[in-house]
Amino acid sequence: MIARAADVSSRGAGSSRHKDKSPETETRPDRAGRLRRARALPRQAWEGLPTHVQACAANRHRRRPLHLYVWNPNDPLKKTRIPYFCRSWRCPYCSQHESHVLFARIQEAFATTDPKDVVFLVLTLNPEQHLRGKSRLADVYREFGSRGERFLKRVRRWMIRNDMTPFGREWVSTVEAHRSGVPHINFMIRSADLAAFLRQDNESRRPACESDVNATLIRGELKPHLLACGFGWRSTAEALRLNVRPQEGVSVLAGYITKIACTADQTLGELAKRTQVPMMAPKNFRRLRSGKGFLPLRRKGELTGALIRRYRAPEGDEVAEAVSRSTSAEYMAHVRACERQEQEVIYAEERLRGQKRAFIRLGLPLPRTKWVRVFRVKPVGSASTCNRASPTSEAFA
Questions:
Q1: How far, CA to CA in Å, does 267 sit from each of 177, 219, 262, 397?
Q2: So what's the pLDDT on residue 247?
Q3: Higher pLDDT, 357 or 243
Q4: Most-buried pick from 136, 278, 329, 368 (CB within 10 A)?
Q5: For 312, phi and psi rounded to 5 degrees?
Q6: Residue 272 pLDDT more than 70?
Q7: Residue 10's Cα: distance from chain center in Å?
Q8: Is the pLDDT of residue 393 over 50?
Q9: DSSP 3-state of 312
Q10: Nearest-CA neighbor of 172 among 194, 149, 193, 150?
Q11: If residue 348 lies in a helix (H) or strand (E), which one and from where to where?
Q12: Rounded to whole angstroms, how far apart are CA atoms 389 and 340?
């Protein structure tokens, strides 16, 4: 079983759970199957991704493995060595887990919100920007975040002029991509006045023989603000439809958030469809944005740790080195102990590589790979030395 660092945001109160508890859909996540499929991908599937994504343990083509040594500050001598997972929405393996974490954070942020006060916007770029995206797609992505925030500022000023209470930081946005790679953005906003205005506007346009889709297109006083920010006329805005589901309260909101904020699997909705993930976005692109302090932070628990990498020295030896740095002498003592323990693992793997042919010649089974190992390691400078590493390692992975 593959262990993750204890940061899962879905470990919250019962109202912030993201799982569908119905008997028809309650299934255990097939993490091992997803990992096998990710490790079976060819090298070309990982090329072009950011460096930290290519270093993920799900990539069997990674150049040098990274490992995390985690420990509880209350029991710092017990350290657990686990493989490094990138936790990126671009990763073929980690993206599904990240979509669940995102869903849990959004659901917790809107847990106390009245469902009728939720507004959903889908903003698409105008045709000129779509044509520009064919040759300068990276520039389109770089300008995209500022376009959305500029539109929110215009909407707030418009609400003040019309004697409405403007919303503050109660909004969340996620970026998706069309099949051409050009992005569009989804907004969830908590605003009672804006929701009431849009609900009344949409209901007044439906009797005029307009379809449900056309009735949600942004028209009237909001359209000039939309076009001024570079968005197109096919953008939509609507209040939460309370007649979609018969449930009330948080259950309606959870179903609506699921529709726009989760992975496209058997139980969840559309946000992280692999065809809509903006894989063509440039490096350091922020797919998720929200009002400052609105989304709850990821829950990391009490664990701390250090990231250990390996590199080949000029003399040809493989050396373990910590990526983590700190001014705390106590923390760095534990980090040096982790470096020393990883060096012991390297020596054990080298011995096993030398014995691999002998195992095959004698017909003996190769040692099984252990992804997670626990050591009792004292910080550098202590009287006792660290435990020797078990010979079972990733040498035959």
A1: 22, 34, 9, 33
A2: 42
A3: 357
A4: 278
A5: -95, 120
A6: no
A7: 13
A8: no
A9: strand
A10: 149
A11: helix 329-362
A12: 10
Residue 381 structure tokens: 């400078």
pLDDT digits (tens, 9 = 90+) for 74-116: 888 899 999 999 988 888 888 888 878 888 888 888 888 888 8
For residue 180, count other CB atoms closer than 10 A to its CB.
11
Render pLDDT for 38-59 as a digit per residue (tens, 0 to 9). 888 898 889 888 888 999 999 9
Sheet hosting strand 67-72, strand order edge to edge = 318-322, 304-312, 67-72, 75-83, 373-376
Per-residue pLDDT tens for 124-154? 888 877 777 777 888 888 888 888 889 999 9
Residue 251 · residue 245 · CB < 8 Å: yes
Contact yes or no for 64/93 (Cβ under 8 A):
no
What percent of the chain is modeled with pLDDT above 90? 15
Kindly tell me if the per-residue pLDDT of 259 is higher than 60. Answer: no
Q: Which DSSP letter does residue 313 get?
A: -
Estimate the crossing angle of helix 94-109 against helix 250-261, to 10 degrees. Answer: 150
- In the structure encoding, which two tokens stand for residue 198, read together? 């849009």
C-alpha 394: how far from chain center: 27
Which residues touch 397 (CB under 8 Å, ≥6 apart)? 60, 369
Contacts of 173 (CB under 8 A, 6+ apart): 148, 185, 186, 187, 188, 288, 289, 290
Polymer length of the chain: 397
CA pair distance 56, 94, nearest whole angstrom: 9
